[in-house]
Amino acid sequence: FYTYNDFIAATKYYPTFGSSGSLDVQKRELAAYFANVKQETGTLQYIREINRNNVYCDTSRGIPCPAGTKAYYGRGPLQLTWNYNYDAAGKAFNMNLLQNPDQVAQNGVLSWRSSVWFWMQNSNCHTAITQNQGFGATIRAINGGQECGKGSETQPAQNRINYYKDFCSQLGVSPGGNLGC
């Protein structure tokens, strides 16, 4: 499902993704993105969240959860979750993802695009890396409520850090500071 060609097609919507700052910053951004993708998808084996029992509907932001709609559990490389994220991504793409969130799990380009959109527009991950806040800021932005603030790194957060360091090593760049939550 996750193909290189679909990834490249999705990134064309975001020309500053992986191309901002020095070459080292660009490498760190790609390492950070793929480290989080690796954790979220179990090394690109999962398209949908394993535990699909959670509905992830929060109407306090004024975004409904239409009757009959599937739950807003995670889908795609960064596991887009919550009704308000599907709504915002859908508006950015001129699609109704709120009514049909499963489109993110059915179309490879859309799946990658939703994750790059989240990285660039909705989570501040791009800014965290390009402004040298460190990899830990991406963990907080993506899954901080579950993985950060526990007194020490949770296993998922530590996995992300290890993946990031490995990708940085493969790309020949120092991981920089502020790696943890």
Automatic annotation (TrEMBL):
Membrane spanning residue stretches: none
GO MF entries: chitinase activity
Organism from which the protein derives: Selaginella moellendorffii
Name this protein carries in UniProt: Glycoside hydrolase family 19 catalytic domain-containing protein
Classification via PANTHER family: CHITIN-BINDING TYPE-1 DOMAIN-CONTAINING PROTEIN, CHITINASE-RELATED
BP GO terms, sorted: cell wall macromolecule catabolic process; chitin catabolic process
SUPFAM superfamilies given in the database record: Lysozyme-like
Alphabetical list of Pfam families matching this protein: Glyco_hydro_19 (PF00182)
Domain Glycoside hydrolase family 19 catalytic: start-end pairs: 1-181
